[in-house]
Amino acid sequence: MNSRERVLAALNHQEPDRVPFDLCSNASTGIHRIAYSNLRKGLGLPPSEPAIMHLGLQIVWVEEDVHEALKTDFRGIRSSPASGWTLELHEDEKFRWFMDESGITRHMPMPDGLYYDLCNSPLANASTPEDVAKHPLFPPDDPGRFIGMKERVDEIRALGKAVVLGGSSGGILEASQWLRGYENMYCDLAANQPLAEALFDRILEFKMAYWTRAMQEIGEYVDVINEGDDYGGQNGLLMSARMWRKLLKPRLRTLFAHIKSCAPHVKILLHSCGSIREIIPELIEVGVDALNPVQVAAAGMNTRELKRDFGKDITFWGGGVDTQYVLPTGTPQQVRDEVRRRFEDLSPGGGFVFAAVHNIQADVPAENIIAMREELLACGVCAD
After folding, report:
1. Which of 22, 87, 111, 316 has a CA-to-CA distance to 279 between 20 and 30 Å?
2. Domains identified in the chain and CATH numbers
């Protein structure tokens, strides 16, 4: 099998020749620029200056020599900025900062910050749906967003890799939090639902327009589309399941049905951190084909139980090694033990794509990343 065949078999719940491995097909399976620099050194590769995939998270585009060394199976594509918008980075003695094309400002502490954190939300003072409607957004189907996509698809297909296409905004809840501010957004859910729903609907419309154009441009060549949101914390959902069902589930159903109407063959990969076991059956119901990151250290996210209860209906894309504790602070042997445990839990019958639980952060030693990959290769084919 080549990589693409391997991936499609796993996503169709068939056992491939070996479990597919993902590093950096999207901004939730990536690697921080510092860890990446250390990984290159650990692999005996020369220093480099990789492009940044996600400025806020400081996730890099993994280069082909690292992909080859680790035998990865995916390549990702992300949209470009809209025409007429240019990134401007600023700094003073305390912070570096930038404003994105939605008007959201993020800053990084100087001199040794690791990420750009939210510091200003353009709709913080909104009070009505009309305020939401007035906020300017660059067109979601602007031609600039799709520059170079077809050429990149051709390169990926020539390599025999699976193609993952990302969206052009955060998730419906996630983007609302950024635009409105976290505290305001959660207060809105309880006390000003018309405003919250107006914001959710505006983001939904943006997403549907983007995916319509994206599928027109390269849909026939894409294997997986990546959407994301965050519905869970360490110990449970970030809102009640009842509220999620009322406000977010119908909009997810609409979005995923629209994407499938544009490209029926694509698989939908949804990212949501945290303890979300309670709503996994309903994510399957609304059209999710694969779930990331499978946060194994969160409440209720036991991999053996998840596979037993949902493994016939959804692919687990992640869960390969805990990134809260094991990958950054464990020994290489502890990493190997964790990888083998998750492999044994999640690989039987296909429906498993190996990735670390979310991005590999700056403090993860190169030897642990290498141990992670070596152990997965040592595990061999899917378990019986």
Report:
1. 22
2. 3-29+71-85+126-379 (3.20.20.210)
Name the amino acid, one letter, at 93.
E
State pLDDT tens for residues 28-70.
999 999 999 999 999 999 999 999 999 999 999 999 999 999 9
Could you tell me the pTM of the whole model? 0.97
Mean pLDDT along residues 15-31: 97
